[in-house]
Predict the structure.
Amino acid sequence: MRKKINGAVIAICCLLPHLAACGGTELENKYFPLAVVVGQKGTHCQVNYLSQNLSEVANERADGSNITACGAAAETYYETQKTFEKNNRCQLDLSHTKAVIFQKGFLEKGSLPLFLETVRREQTYAQNTLVYLSDTSMDVLTELNGTLEIPLGSYLEQMTENEQEIGAQAVVTLGALLKEQANSSRTLLLPVLKEVNDLPVIHAYEILQNFTHKGRISTNQAQIYYLAANQLEQMNLSMTKEVQVRLSNLKCRREFGLENGMAVQHLYVSADAEPVTGTVDAGTLETELSNRILEVCRLLKEEQQADITDSYRHLALRAPELYRIYENQSEAYRKNLEYRVQVNIRLL
């Protein structure tokens, strides 16, 4: 469903009624992109700044021509900003940017650390700017910015705000990336965008662990990450084609221990369950959910050396004896980690 213009855009419009469209007549010497797409082409960083001429937002007869997109390329991200400002005779203002979207090639070239260092030093973005990866080309994202009823950045912001399954604390922002670059202690999931039926959707997640990319996982696998973090609001289980169940009031408690020299994490999961179609008993649900959690945890550990439960950062507080063994040895801890899962379901 197409989104309507939200209050944030209207507020900006009131505050900044005369914004310049790139390459057009400038009313003010500033350019306010709502989304920034960052990619790598050969040895050069390539950036598209996606914006909207907010002075035309109030025009109900606008035909989409108020959407603007301008690009720049240089050897580094910092130089793209300066190149953009020089070529377009305007100053970039990124304080209202809703989302930064990294293209796959940008990450593969190892350019993310330098980008974040530039952001840290320049303090150009707000800390709560949303972060996405994209399998969709820069040209397609630019086209979406013009065909959606609101700019792409605002669309992604609303999509995040309207998310019903995942809690707000699960959202990855530039602030979270900057902290992880400095500490390298967490497992983060970066949402990956794809264009489907002329709309941007999240179709996968990239695991970032110890600030190292561990590969892709599906949206269903990502649910285990959010469940362990108590950030999963609800979960749909398809037992069979005839039996569909909705889980709510999900809670996960952790305990740690040592067994035969292996670090062991016990996950105690509880949930309310309501059949959507068909009938099922609590015991069957408990076994099914327990098996799914274990399967995902073990598969990702074996194939991608990733702890989807992000447990290492909990050791210092919840398992100090275990933490003393693995202090500053997060990779060794994950390699020796085993999982135990117990599920308690209450049928509604």
Observations:
- The radius of gyration is 23 Å.
- Residues 1-5, 7-27, 55-67 have pLDDT under 50 and may be disordered.
- The first helix runs from residue 7 to 15.
